[in-house]
Amino acid sequence: MLRFTARDLIRDLQALLRDRYRDNDGGIAIVKEVIQNADDAGATALFLAHFEEAAPEAGVNPLCFRAGILVVNDAPFEKRHERAFTSFSTSSKDQEEGQIGRFGIGRKSLFHWTEVIFYLGCAADGKVRGGVINPWAEQQDEGEGSNRSVYVDQRNPSWLEWKTDGREGAILRERAMRLLGARGKKPWFAVWLPSRPEADEGRSLTRVSTDREILPFSRARLDPVARLMPQLSKLVRIEFHIVPLDPNTKTTAIARIERDGAGLGRPGADILSGDRDTTGTVSIGLIGPTGRQNDSWKLDYHIAERLVDGNELTEIKTHPNWPTEPPEDFQNPDAMATPAKAAPHGGASVIIGTASDPLGGRLQLHNAIFLPLSGASATERVSMSVPVDVSVFLHGYQFPDSGRQHVDGNPEVMAAEPDSAPGVRARWNQLVRQHATLPNLLPALARALNGCSTAQGRRILKAINQSALLRDSRGPITVSHQLVVGPGFAKATLVHASQRCLGLPEPRDKPVLAALAEVAEEMAGRFALAWCDDPGLLTTHRTDDWKSDDIKAFGDRIRRNFGSEPKAWLGWMATWAQGLGRVAPDEVGAMALAIYRACMADEDWSKLTKDSAWKELVPQTRSSHRDRHHPDPVRSSAHA
């Protein structure tokens, strides 16, 4: 029989905390793990509170009275949850599709904050379970001939003192009820993380100090946590508290995050097939000891998600090397390994809020498996010249690497060994991203930008265009939709991927703009008109693919509006020719003149080309209208 010493366990925990659950952001990554576990358990509310140190009581575990962090949620704590919580590397959610955790080891990150974990919870039937997890304790046989074992901590024997129905359990329950309030009548679960003794040399898993500063009580630290809320399923409220020693004294500080609206769906529960769109708001508030709100702000979020049916994603799950997981009852000789949980589910969430820096905001892109990978850090950041911060979470139900830092998959392995287990995992991840994740970006982005000003929307689109994400993945992003700004719609608008989009320069004169808006509506069945000089154009095809028939149809539509403002139309065409100056002037002139000429009667054309204003504004066009009766456009190589 294999046995593990406390030293083995401590070394494994230290490696886990150092390599897999690094605390590089002042505790936010650990808070994310706590949030993830609460949401997976079905909690709707989560509380994290710092309690001050209290006077010890004789005969009671002294760690109950140290300062520390109390984590409480309103989810039931069943027997299977206790079994998983107290096991080093198991999870009660391995076979539950739609839950975020895959390896069941995220709770080990709590040891960043403590040396010993106390837990107490109430099941749906009212049964209360509790205990202590002390990795420093050695497992020993209870006595000769006994099959039972006990845990012994010879250095700090009091650390193991615990009675669920005794004083230790009562202290933990009183503190939990103080936070839960009316929710305490329902099932609940609480974890006490006493601060680590600083003087106990050699008994420290990490060097992280557990004080009140570990919890986010500033706008800069709360905002990243609030931006996780749209990715959650059931959890709609998170509170952070600093609790004084005296139970009759009000909490000295509260930070509250609340979500109004549904979150990212879970396949098999919230989304069964097809597409799903969600919109909502996240409210954040900082409340002082007097109950007065010191600061508050909101985030708007928009989610587009889909559960893909058919295609290769269905076939690959039947592959002989599809990942498997051990059976829950692995001692049963008839038990079989089960296929690893995964669903062809993906989504894009766009969260927009006021930037903390009034001089400019940031676009942050995150890869996610429900919640973002790589802790709380973004995979890409792009600065913007507008005071809004935009977070984009690209979720795919994929296989992460063992540290849940990246999506698993090596393209070289997938190419060289496509039928190997790593190759199958990599292929699944690639297919989910292409078919279920990236096509949701433009629908979510379009709805999000409807709540922004035109200027803000265009700056955000410009940032998207500057990202490596669009450069590397334009095809799957625009496979279903294009996102354009053009006449008739000042803000970004979705058009179908099959729709041709033809570029025009955006006029400054209102009569020209109004006329083009009418033309755009009339021509919608043939092609969409878009501002080719807009930096945020997200199209499937080139926008300079004007053909002779397009020019004639376009010219026929605007001919009736042209005569009223000839100077305005002249300026518009000159702007176009000058704006596309990256190509040869005679090519620009040929294209500009072809459209310009199609809009005029012969006598007007002859009169205008002799005008000094024309020669001054568009000098490069003078040699480009040899056949003005049958102008053929020269395609510009400029691409919006």
Could you write a compact summary of the structure shown?
This protein has 640 residues and is α+β, with helices and mostly antiparallel strands. It has helices at residues 6-20, 28-40, 79-85, 167-180, 219-226, 311-316, 411-416, 421-437, 441-449, 454-466, 468-477, 510-522, 548-562, 566-579, 585-598, 602-609, 612-617; strands at 45-51, 68-73, 117-122, 128-133, 138-141, 149-152, 188-194, 237-243, 253-260, 274-287, 293-307, 324-325, 338-339, 345-354, 362-369, 371-372, 380-383, 388-396, 481-486, 489-496, 501-504, 528-531. Strands 1, 2, 3, 4, 7, 8, 9, 10, 11, 14, 15, 16, 17 and 18 form a 14-stranded mixed beta sheet that branches.
What does this structure look like?
This protein is an alpha+beta fold and 640 residues long. It folds into three domains: 209 residues; 198 residues, no CATH class; 140 residues, no CATH class. Helix content is 29%, strand content 22%. It is built from 17 helices and 22 strands. Strands 1, 2, 3, 4, 7, 8, 9, 10, 11, 14, 15, 16, 17 and 18 form a 14-stranded mixed beta sheet that branches. It has a two-stranded antiparallel ribbon with strand order 5-6. Strand 10 and strand 11 form a beta hairpin. Helix 12 packs across helix 13, helix 13 packs across helix 15 and helix 14 runs antiparallel to helix 15. The radius of gyration is 31 Å and the shape is elongated.
